[in-house]
Every structure is written in structure tokens, then in C-alpha cells.
Amino acid sequence: MRVKATIAYNGTKFYGSQIQERETTVNGTLQDVLSSLGIETKIEASGRTDRGVHATGQVIHFDLPPFWTDTNKLQDVMNLKLPNSLHVRKIESVGDDFHARYSAKRRVYRYILKEGKSNPFYDEFITFVEKIDIKLLQSAIKNFEGTHNFEGFYKKGSDNKTTIRTIYKAYVYEHKGFIVLYFEANGFLRSQIRLMVGMLLGLNSEKYKIEDLENQLLCKQKISFKPAPSNGLYLAKIFYS
User: Fold this and answer.
1) Which of these ranges, 29-33, 193-197, 219-223, has the smallest mean pLDDT?
2) Which of 94, 116, 137 marks a domain boundary?
3) Where would a tag sit more exposed on the chain, N or C end, judged by fewer CB atoms within 10 A?
4) Would you put residue 212 in left (φ > 0), alpha (ψ -120 to 50) or beta?
């Protein structure tokens, strides 16, 4: 039986999601727990997250051996064995043709900012900015909506066949004192969101102008700039229909 599991994790406790030798990763930790329960099939995730990036709605799939039929019990047992930084939110049976990555239609990420100085209670989860011009961010982020060649907004080294992606929604809103940047697309390139947010933060600090964003998006120029810190980024939801 194939199952789909929705998971959440604190990315600061893991060296990214993909399995790596000698490093603690999300998928490696899950794989170890499943192996301890007699489940030896490979985990497939909706996509990778880099070191320090969090998730509230990451999706994985794996196949169960015949002796595992109770998904509620499996969820409970896994959560008992997993560290507090990683939690299985839901496990449900799916068809054999379901694939966590290739069946996905849309992906949602949120990036969380807060105005002011950092503090030890939020530092792992939020990016602090001394002063935020929310109206500027709300206007500038709209440039990313639509179908674009994001050649200037991704980290090299990934195996993408194309750098063209469609962003359906990109907007900024306030929630309980936090500034949330929302991105929904058919897919994202490696570090794409962090680089887009890095550009937006550069506009916010007046280091760049809106023309720089527009020209970078049109592949007319290449500005070297740092991606936004990983601690503010969350994989929020995967849509399959």
C-alpha cells in the first residue's frame, strides 16, 4: 500500500531534507525510523529544502509492507520515535500512481519577516529587518507573478531542465505583528525564493532600485546578491489537484 504523509519540521535542526552521509537530514531521520519499523522502501518527497528551511506542509510518499495496514497507528508510532523537531501531521493511503513530487500541481512557500532587532526566542524562525517598507514590498513582489525565466533567481548546481516557472500568486500581508511574503507556483528552482526575497530586501534597504529587479527578471542584467537567510522560509503546502 502506498501512503502519503504530511510532515512538519524545524529546519535549523537538520542539514537540509535530502539524505547525506554523516549529516542529520529530514529524509535520513525519517528513513531510519521507518527502517526500525520494518519499512525499507525509499522515501520520495515533494521537493528538497535547504539547510535551515522549515516546513509546515511538506509531503512524502512511501510504500508499506503487507503487515502495516493501520495508518493511524503508524503515525503515532513514528511520532514517538521521531525527535521533537520533526512531526508527522497526517498519513493517508493513496493510489499506486501517486508521486509526492511528480503529482504535485502547485507549491506554496511563506517567508516571515519582523521589524526590529533580533531576539533569541525568534531567531531560528524569523528574519529580522531593522525597518520594513511594507507598501514597497507589496508593490515590488507583484513583479514575480506570471511566467518568467528565473535564470537570475536560482542557485546553480541543480538538475533543472528549464529555469522557466509560473508564479500564480505573490503578495505580502501582516499577521500578528509579522510580515509574511506568500509565493504560490507550479514549482520553484533551488534557492529561488530566498533569492527573490533577497532582492526585495535590497529594495527595502534602498540598495537596489525596482529597475534592477525588472532587468534581472528579464535576464537583461545579473546582479550578484545574497539570498535571504534560510530561517525565515517555510514550505507551507503542496496542492495535488
Assistant:
1) 219-223
2) 94
3) C
4) alpha
Is residue 11, in this structure, part of any structural domain at all? Answer: yes
Q: Which residue has the cell 526590529?
A: 116
Say which amino acid occupies 193. I
DSSP track, 101-143:
TTT--EEEEEEEEEES---TTTTTT-EEES---HHHHHHHGGG
C-alpha cell of residue 205: 534597504
All three cell numbers of 138? 507589496
- Residue pair 152/192 in contact (Cβ under 8 Å)? The answer is no
Question: What contacts 197, CB < 8 A, 6 or more positions away?
Answer: 111, 181, 227, 228, 232, 233
The answer to whether 31 and 21 have CB atoms below 8 angstroms apart is no
Write b or e for each residue in 52-83: b if 16 or more Cβ atoms lie within 10 A of its Cβ, otherwise e. Answer: bbbbbbbbbbbebeeebeebeebbebbeeebe
Question: What is the percentage of the chain residues whose pLDDT exceeds 70?
Answer: 99
Give the largest Cα separation in the chain, rounded.
60
**One-letter amino acid of 68:** W
State how far the Cα of 111 lies from the Cα of 100, in Å rounded to an integer.
Answer: 23
Q: Is 133 a catalytic residue?
A: no
If asked whether residues 134 and 39 sit together in one domain, one would say: no
Whether 157 shows a pLDDT value over 70: the answer reads: no
CA end-to-end span of the chain: 21
- Among the listed residues 32, 50, 70, 133, the single catalytic one is 50
Summarize the confidence of residues 132-151 as an average pLDDT.
97
